[in-house]
Design a protein that fits this description.
Elements: E1 2-5, H1 8-18, E2 23-26, E3 41-47, H2 56-66, E4 67-78, H3 80-87, E5 95-101, E6 105-111, H4 114-123, E7 127-132, H5 139-143, H6 145-153, E8 157-163
Parallel strand pairs: 1-2, 3-4
Antiparallel strand pairs: 4-8, 5-6, 7-8
Bound molecules: S-adenosylmethionine (SAM).
């Protein structure tokens, strides 16, 4: 198993959790994955990262390159309707958003409509096999009833299973 993140802290957390079971390193997806050979990876999980990247097609292209033909990329991102509801303006806007979360956490990410994300997947050489708009499990209701109510009615995130065609 290989894992990476641009954050040293995130890689250290993963190392503490996984130990020798994974090869982990700091890597910025703005750079080529030149330490991974072509078509050598069976499957990739990219959880809540893609919307932080300025050149998403280039990064997706690198992920496609290292995947073996028929291999899958499973990725999650903000649901575009959630961003639109929160930020307002045009649903069709494609632009970076800068926010401060939890008092002192500077966050930068891209908002864009669903069409634009799908076009980027295709441009990078992927086909979409499955789309999931997850809803919370009932166990969330006991701990965070308001969040449970909200996410039961409005999507927060969206997930895609993409395939590198054979
Ligand atoms: C919302 S967190 C998700 C963390 C983790 N993947 C998860 O699902 O719990 C976003 C992560 O994307 C990472 N990230 C942002 N830009 C990146 C880049 N250019 N290359 C690699 N990782 C990046 C951040 O360091 C951060 O760990």
């Amino acid at each position: 198993m290989i894992g990476f993140d641009q954050s040293v802290g995130m890689v250290e957390l993963a190392r503490a959790r996984l130990g020798d079971r994974a090869t982990l390193r700091v890597h910025d997806l703005a750079q080529p994955l030149d330490w991974i050979d072509d078509a050598t990876v069976d499957a990739i999980v990219l959880a809540l990262v893609i919307h932080h990247l300025d050149d998403r097609v280039a990064a997706l292209g690198e992920l496609r390159r290292v995947l073996r033909p028929g291999g899958h990329l499973v990725l999650s991102t903000h649901h575009p309707l959630a961003d639109w509801r929160r930020l307002g303006g045009s649903y069709f806007a494609i632009e970076p958003v800068e926010e401060v979360w939890q008092g002192d956490w500077d966050v930068r990410y891209w908002r864009q409509p669903l069409t634009a994300s799908c076009a980027e997947f295709f441009e990078a050489g992927f086909l979409i096999e499955k789309v999931v708009e997850p809803r919370p499990g009932p166990e969330l209701a006991a701990f965070f009833p308001q969040t449970y109510e909200k996410l039961s009615e409005r999507p927060g995130f969206i997930m895609f299973r993409l395939v590198r065609p054979s």
